[in-house]
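$ ./design --mode recover --in tokens.txt
reading tokens...
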């Protein structure tokens, strides 16, 4: 991870944390209450997490809404020892905030994100754009590029997609995803699912299941502006399907999704 960042911008702590200042204006809300409003956040990478988190100067946080945690989580967040419960509109969210165990970050408070724990803030914004799941990594790229490659997708020997007009999505640390127009997909072999996921780089995805019952196909009906070209196109988890590119069968990649997808397929449902 550190190899993707410049020595000038990223600092490290003896505890193994990486952090860097951000110039983005970030706000976090619980209901109608703004809990965080900061123009000087820092991004923090914990050794055990592949994605960053925000920490905020105490002066940018509604500390009057924080209470010393009744049931702190010793050892969580790289050994943090100071945790806070958040009290908003009569609701108490346990361990919703904490301070990292590093002298350089002692004056900052971090918060759980709703999508990660179910007990954080409801909405987060960078400038005027709502962001989801976790902060976007400034050292990660997501490029969606129209192509004329010949893409074929086969599931258990059945050809489900065949196109010469895909959009290839290149995302740092993940395999290339092939987004295919619906007209080139056997939609009659797919079943719409009520499963949805959110991505801070692409938006909210809807899913379809295959005959095996697993949610292996997704689409972004309203993607974020940076990847607007994938709107309505369908992609398949190449970890568990066979994808042929210009006549060459690609090896199934191994990613953090692989084990989850295999388990989901055995249970006959999609990934959580």
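writing sequence...
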């Amino acid at each position: 991870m550190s190899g993707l960042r410049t020595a000038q911008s990223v600092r490290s702590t003896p505890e193994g944390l990486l952090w860097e200042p951000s110039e983005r204006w970030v706000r976090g809300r619980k209901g109608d209450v703004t809990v965080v409003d900061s123009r000087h956040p820092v991004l923090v990478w914990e050794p055990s997490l592949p994605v960053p988190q925000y920490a905020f100067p105490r002066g940018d946080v509604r500390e009057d809404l924080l209470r010393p945690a009744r049931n702190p989580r010793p050892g969580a967040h790289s050994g943090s020892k100071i945790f806070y419960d958040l009290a908003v509109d009569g609701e108490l969210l346990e361990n919703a905030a904490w301070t990292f165990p590093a002298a350089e970050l002692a004056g900052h408070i971090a918060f759980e994100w709703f999508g990660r724990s179910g007990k954080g803030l409801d909405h987060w914004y960078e400038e005027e754009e709502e962001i989801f799941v976790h902060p976007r990594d400034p050292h990660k790229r997501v490029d969606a590029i129209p192509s004329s490659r010949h893409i074929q997708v086969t599931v258990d020997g059945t050809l489900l997609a065949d196109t010469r007009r895909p959009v290839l999505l290149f995302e740092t640390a993940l395999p290339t995803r092939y987004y295919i127009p619906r007209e080139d997909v056997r939609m009659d072999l797919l079943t719409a699912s009520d499963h949805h996921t959110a991505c801070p780089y692409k938006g909210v995805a809807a899913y379809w299941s295959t005959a095996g019952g697993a949610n292996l196909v997704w689409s972004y009906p309203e993607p974020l502006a940076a990847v607007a070209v994938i709107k309505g196109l369908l992609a398949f988890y190449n970890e568990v399907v066979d994808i042929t590119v210009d006549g060459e069968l690609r090896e199934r990649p191994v990613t953090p999704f692989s084990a989850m997808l295999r388990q989901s397929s055995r249970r006959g449902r999609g990934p959580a």
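exit 0
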